Every structure is written in C-alpha cells, then in structure tokens.
C-alpha cells in the first residue's frame, strides 16, 4: 500500500477548510443547474458581465477546441478544401436575398447601425451564417468548369441573438465554429462530399469526444433553410432525455446559386448553375461532451481531447525525501512528455493534497499519478483513473507503455459506457399511445413514419409542454427494414421510413 491511502487527510475535510470546490447540484437530481455549475467550476467558461447568452471561453475549453481543430483541419485539406476568412459584417441587401430561406434569423440577427454618433448609410448585420457574405464572391470567382470545384472553409465566430434560454456551449448568442462552403459542377459530387464530411463529424464525436451519435437525415421541417436536404450526427443526453444535433452537412442544391447567380459554363459551352454544400460543427461539441460524461465531481474528459492527460502530484510527507520525490515527479513528466503523452507536474505548495485532487477531478483530467516515499523506494507510481475511480500501481520500468494502454482503455471505456446508457434510452414503438408513454419517460424514440410534413407538425402541436415539443430528430442512414403493412405511429398511413423522435436542445 502507498502512503497515499494511509497517511493523507480526508479529502472532503481539507477542501472544505480551503475552498469549496464541491458541486451544489447533482447530475441525476437537477441536471440543468448541475450543468451550469460544472462548466463554471471546471473553468470552461465565465459569464460575461450581465449579458445573457455571452460567455468567456477559458483556456481549458479553448484547448479542447484546438485539439478538435487539429484533427479536422488536416482531414478537410486532404479533400482539397482551402481555408479563408470573410468579414464578420453582412450587407443588408445581401441578407435580404436569403430571407425566404432564413426566416428564423429575423429575430436573431444583430445589427450595426451607427459609427460613433453617425448613422450608417447601409445597415450591417453581424453574421448569423455566411452564405450571404460568401456567395456574391462565388459568383464573381466562378466562371467556367475549370473554376470548379470551389471548396472553402473558415474558422470563425457567428452571432445569433437568441431569444430562448441561453445555455453555455449549447445555445449562446455568439459561438465559434467552422463553416465549409463548396460549389460543384454536378449533384453527384455534392452528394459525395456531404457524406464524406458527415463521417468526419462522426469521428469527432465518437473517436475524440467518446459520444455516440446516429448518422441520419433531418425531416423537411428540420432541414437547414435553403437546403434540399440536411444530414446530421445526432447525439442524445440520457439525463435530460433530449436529443442534440451535433453537426450538420447540408446539400444546398441550386437554391443559393439561383439567388446569387453562381453560374458557370461547362465543357460543352453550356450555361448552368453550380451545386452547393454547406457544413459545420461548433463549440456545441464541448457542451455535449460535458453533458454525456460529467459526474457529481465535475468534468470527465476523454484522453484524446484533454489538454492534460496525466497530472503528476508529489506526495512528500514528513520525514520523506521531498527533493527526491519532486525530482522523480519531474522525471516522470519528462518521460511521458517525450512519449507524446500530455503530462504536467502539480508543483503547487500552497494547497493540500485533497484540494489538488478535487481540483483535477473537477477539471476532468483522465489520469492522476501520485508519487510518495514508498513509491520512490518501490520504483513505481500510483495511477488513479478519473472515469471510474480505479487505481493501479505501475512499475517505473513499464510506465510509458502502461500509461498509453490506460489512456486508450479510458477512451474506449468512456465511449462504451456512454453508448450503453444511450442505447438503454432508445425505445422502439408502433402506436401513438406507446409514443406518448415513451416520451414521458424521456426516451429516444424510434418509430415508423409516413414522412409527411403535416404529420410532423401535428406531432409537435400535440406534444407541446413546458419542456418543449417532440420533433423528428433524424432518420438513420442505416434504416431498419420496413415490413409490409407497417403503419405510421402518428397518422396510421403507410410508413415510409424509421425515424428517431424526442425532445431536443
């Protein structure tokens, strides 16, 4: 046994004496308040004065955003997508061109109307999305088939002055995202890119954030304004019983090309309009990860997105070789860092051991290593897993290999646990009564549907409540078989597809 078990004071008592890092709310009892508290105490965000819906993203959050960027950006460059940057401001005449596609933006658009005390001749909007900023220039740059495909992406911020209940990361007035905008000569090329991008979004959620998602298409009601179809990676939050659109990849068809006259001349000298796509994921990814994995101690980070994967803490009790322990900890960090493991030393002498442990638990660091006098004598370290609390002694000679295996195991285990919890919330139904019962139990519902807009709108109307109405989350690309005679759960008409339904963020 290490002295970390037998000699350290009780963690809760230490922390209570120094500063209260404990969460007031419990995830299983008051999920919304728990979430709001954990994103602040884990130092992901800070509220920005008294302006509802605006948040400061602190380094702990931005580090995760950068890791996702470092995966995604090289992948889209392999697809010959180029990065660019367009201004934040949208000319009012350009925005009005897409008004019939973006009715929902009307109340969300923030306008700049003055410079100092001078009223601007032309009102400028802060971009809610960039179609109306970028596509006038696509029209200028695309003339013939040699100019295609044109595939651009920008990493930027957008502003949507939400009127609902703002939630950090999930729904805010300003957020970070990447938005890709592509133009092709044919629909086949556009269709292929939609699915290629969607697979990258699946990788972000499942392979980095350890959050299970369903690849699917949105209903007509939920399709992105101006698109002919929208694909999504749809996640589900068991504790709230709500779905969440993780990212979308849209085929815009020729609707925007028509509005902005994005035309080209093909190889035969014939005039035509381009086929366009738009696709994006945002800092919403971080919020979904927190909701799925967090617990009553704070964040639980998958190793692949943790900026610190291993925190090393010296344990120099009285009569111990304090300098030897500290040197060993420093050497451990160096060894792990040289092996491309993101490790850091907690050399803070002002906080007790209990305070340190609770802080790193709150921030969700996947592995905590402690080294004391007995560990030094036994040429070992003691490692504690954040995801399940398990501890293991690791011989120093095997340290790098064992830590890598542990981190890989944590990553996979977090996904497996999250998928099991998500799958336990999925309920297959066939009738309206079964639907209502499953909805009241906060399930993700898989139901046969006739795929009619009026029926979906009727479902929304019939399920209105304080928690919001139920809607079609997505129709999975991997469709279960529709048996002959299967009826739509809501209308009784012949079913055309299986669709996931539920409440949604």
UniProtKB/TrEMBL annotation:
A single GO molecular function term of this UniProt record: ATP binding
HAMAP family associated with the record: Pro_tRNA_synth_type3
EC primary class: ligase
GN (gene name): LOC101497954
One GO BP annotation of this record: prolyl-tRNA aminoacylation
CDD domains the UniProt entry points to: ProRS_anticodon_zinc (cd00862), ProRS_core_arch_euk (cd00778)
Protein name in UniProt: Proline--tRNA ligase
Domain spans labelled Aminoacyl-transfer RNA synthetases class-II family profile: 93-302
Keywords from the named record: Aminoacyl-tRNA synthetase, ATP-binding, Ligase, Nucleotide-binding, Protein biosynthesis
Catalysed reactions listed for this entry: tRNA(Pro) + L-proline + ATP = L-prolyl-tRNA(Pro) + AMP + diphosphate
Keyword Aminoacyl-tRNA synthetase (UniProt): yes
PROSITE patterns: AA_TRNA_LIGASE_II
Lineage top rank: taxon: Eukaryota
Any single Gene Ontology cellular-component annotation: aminoacyl-tRNA synthetase multienzyme complex
Enzyme Commission no: 6.1.1.15
Origin species: Cicer arietinum (Chickpea)
Pfam families in alphabetical order: HGTP_anticodon, ProRS-C_1, tRNA-synt_2b
């Amino acid at each position: 046994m290490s002295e970390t078990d037998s000699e350290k004071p009780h963690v809760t008592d230490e922390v209570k004496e120094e500063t209260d890092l404990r969460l007031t709310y419990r995830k299983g009892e008051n999920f919304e308040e728990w979430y709001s508290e954990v994103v602040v105490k884990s130092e992901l965000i800070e509220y920005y004065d008294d302006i509802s819906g605006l948040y400061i993203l602190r380094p702990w959050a931005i580090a995760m955003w950068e890791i996702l960027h470092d995966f995604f950006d090289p992948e889209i460059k392999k697809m010959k997508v180029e990065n660019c940057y367009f201004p934040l401001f949208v000319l009012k005449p350009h925005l009005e061109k897409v008004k019939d596609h973006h009715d929902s933006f009307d109340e969300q658009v923030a306008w700049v109307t003055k410079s100092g005390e001078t009223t601007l001749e032309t009102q400028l909007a802060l971009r809610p999305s960039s179609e109306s900023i970028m596509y006038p220039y696509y029209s200028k740059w695309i003339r013939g088939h040699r100019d295609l495909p044109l595939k651009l992406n920008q990493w930027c911020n957008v502003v949507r002055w939400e009127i609902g209940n703002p939630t950090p990361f999930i729904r805010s007035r300003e957020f970070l995202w990447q938005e890709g905008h592509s133009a092709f000569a044919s629909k086949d090329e556009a269709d292929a890119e939609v699915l290629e991008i969607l697979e990258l979004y699946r990788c972000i959620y499942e392979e980095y954030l350890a959050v299970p998602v369903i690849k699917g298409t949105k209903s007509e009601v939920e399709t992105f304004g101006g698109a002919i179809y929208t694909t999504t990676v749809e996640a589900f939050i068991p504790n709230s019983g709500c779905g969440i659109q993780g990212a979308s990849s849209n085929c815009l068809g020729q609707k925007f090309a028509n509005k902005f006259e994005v035309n080209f001349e093909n190889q035969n000298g014939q005039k035509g309009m381009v086929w366009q796509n738009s696709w994006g994921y945002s800092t919403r990814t971080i919020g979904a990860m927190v909701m799925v994995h967090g617990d009553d101690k704070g964040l639980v980070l998958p190793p692949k997105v943790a900026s610190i994967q291993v925190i090393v803490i010296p344990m120099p009790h009285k009569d111990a070789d304090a300098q030897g322990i500290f040197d060993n900890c420093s050497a451990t960090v160096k060894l792990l860092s040289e092996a491309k493991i993101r490790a850091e030393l907690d050399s803070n002498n002002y906080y007790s051991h209990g305070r340190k442990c609770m802080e790193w638990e709150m921030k969700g660091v996947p592995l905590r290593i402690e080294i004391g006098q007995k560990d030094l004598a036994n040429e070992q370290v003691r490692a504690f897993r954040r995801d399940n609390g398990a501890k293991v002694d690791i011989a120093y000679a095997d340290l790098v290999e064992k830590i890598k295996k542990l981190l890989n195991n944590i990553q996979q285990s977090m996904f497996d646990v999250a998928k099991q919890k998500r799958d336990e919330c999925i309920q297959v139904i066939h009738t309206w009564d079964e639907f209502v019962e499953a909805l009241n139990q906060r399930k993700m519902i898989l139901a046969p549907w006739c795929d009619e807009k009026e029926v979906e709108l009727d479902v929304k109307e019939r399920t209105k409540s304080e928690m919001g109405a139920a809607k079609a989350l997505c129709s999975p690309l991997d469709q279960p078989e529709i048996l002959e005679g299967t009826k739509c759960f809501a209308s009784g008409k012949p079913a055309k597809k299986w669709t996931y339904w539920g409440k949604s963020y």
